[in-house]
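Researcher: Next sequence.
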Amino acid sequence: MKWNVGKIDDNSIVIVIYYMYVEDIYGVDEVWVINLDRRTDRWNGLLEHIASKKIMFRDLKRFSAIDSKSMSEREIKKVVNAKDLYLVKPDTKRKYHEQLTRGAVGCYLSHIELWKYAMNQNKTLMILEDDVRFNDNFVAYNGNLHYDMLFLRLIMRNQPFYDTESYAKPHLLFLMTGYLITPSACEKLLKNALPMKYQIDSYISL
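Model: Next structure:
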């Protein structure tokens, strides 16, 4: 929300309040939310959360997430590194965060489909997962950073390097719940994205 203060005459002041869309504040072309068709509860919950925070999107787009539960073994083998196929069997549990799981395959593919779209359409995107939650200063971004990717929230494994008091360059990270990404960054990441060996956040940071 922005405030404009102007004078009508020496004795009167008018205040005009106008709202800014997230796309304008962050300078992105489109905002996409990754959401499984069967998880309408998550989609509706996110919309309620956004409304409660009074956050305004010009056009919040929903990406129908790739559901790895419905993928055949043949489809899985096409995208997962052969040595890591044992990790994506339905009953296998991972020991380390970066290891793949069956569910992570669909999540990974959903992100890279949006990367392809951003690269092909030459658009900078804000990509959100449907469990993202915003804090009260979400719309306080100052827009003065140059970036390939800008994460809205993450967990950092190692000590980050801080550019300013508000922004950090992480070495290793967890979470892909919300980030901005440019077409050039998408092009770089897509070069080695498949076959997948790790969780999507580990692929980016390892």
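Model: The two ends are 38 Å apart (CA to CA). Confidence is low (pLDDT under 50) at residues 1-9, 14-18.
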